[in-house]
Design brief:
69 residues; 35% strand
Amino acid sequence: MVELVFEVVQEPDGGYCAECLTEYIFTQANSWNELRHGAVEAVKAFYFDGPAPANVRLHLVRDEVLSLA
């Protein structure tokens, strides 16, 4: 596996939650930089006994509701 993809959602309080789409890996953080570090550490921990993927992709999902009234 060359790359793991995480779906990232920004929480209402400003923090971030990231969930891997193909493995049971989850992390959260208060800032984007903390999230980047947390994702790398979570992947390393998940693959502690084997080769880890070469890349981690963080895909930020933004859901916005616009009022037409």
